[in-house]
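INFO  loader      accepted 1 record
INFO  loader      residues=165
INFO  predictor   begin
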Amino acid sequence: MTFILRWPAILVLFALVALSAMGALGAASLLTGYAPPVEQAQQAQAAAAETGAASAGWLDVGLLAAAAIFLLIAAVRLIRRTQGFWMWLLGFACYAGRWVYAQGQGVIDQIRAIDFHIYLDPQGLVNNIGSTETQVAILALVLVVGLFIFIVDAADRAYWDRQGG
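INFO  predictor   done
INFO  writer      dumping tokens
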């Protein structure tokens, strides 16, 4: 039963690791002024700058890198069937903390101003990845994955308790 929840959660965690690591690397390259020699990487860097990476600071880079590390550890722990929920929780705290920090003082007002009708148009969310609605949808996805991880960890804990170890 937990196989059905474990592997999709692991795959989503790996995708979040890649997303967080690419965000940290993109922001760090903009902060240091590094211009990649490959044209596709330059286009990705320009797209990252348009979605807000140009205004990122070193705190954003550190929180995204920490989120990538903690989520990677959570994925590995899930694969090994050891408790990965607490690592996921730390990774989520870093990821959500970076988002809240990037929103500034008006985070509550931005959450109140969310247009829930945009969730009926998934293409609109994908086209505007820098919007508050898209970022809240990503955070909700990470929370759902955390629920799956909690369920899998509880099943693993019950199994190890029955085994006496």
